[in-house]
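Table S2 (continued). Query chain:
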Amino acid sequence: MSQLVPSDSNEEEEAHPLEDEGGSMGFLDHVEELRWTLLKPLGVFIVSFVLVMIFIADVKDLLMWPLVQTMTDEDRKAFEGLATRNMMGVYSAMFHIGLIVGVGIASPFLVYNVGRFLAPALNAKERMILVPGSIAVFILFLLGCSFSFFLLLPQAIDITIWFNAMMGFQIIWSPDSYFGFITWIVLGMGVAFQFPVVVIVLIHLNIVTVQMLRSFRRYMVMILIVAAAILTPPDPVTQVMMAVPMYLLYELSIWVAAILTARRKRKEEEEDALY
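Corresponding output:
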């Protein structure tokens, strides 16, 4: 007796409705992978945050360096230390201390995991750029944080102390305001130093051109001056110290983008010549 065997072609077609042509992960698999991509650096951040809380006094002394090293003997006499002004001040200061250190430690893990997540969606040429690009992101982040912590913050604090002395004001700063200020300045400059990477990505995606970046120079100067005036104390020295490196990064972005654009154009001409 013969048996009718139904075709299972429809079942095979419906088995993986979200798979790509190459048998890659479906949409839900990508969501799960993205979740783990973000959870791993988040776990590193939480562990780092807890360790900072254990050694909070020592970490606090390290983060006091921009303030302490700018003070003269006369300044130290006028300065009576950081003073909490409300019950939540100490907790806010502890949070900012943990935040700045935790983000700094977790940032390379975030860059690595995001790059690893994006790698399967890129072609071979783009994957070759991914590794040096990830390294550039991390190095620029460290440069931005180091620049603000070792150069920008001491200068800003020194100017502020000078103005207080000129006005005859006693310096009594709260720990939450001090650590909050250095946290957002340090992390903000770390993010701001990613500007060349953003510009190169926009060039690669043909969203902007080198000519557009060059013609936008005068507007960029004004934007950076306004941003420096908002993010730093109201003194021209600190504002210039912030605006000048950012403009140099903009010029560096144009230079790198011009090189990459010339290489891409030359390669396209070589490919056209072959055909």
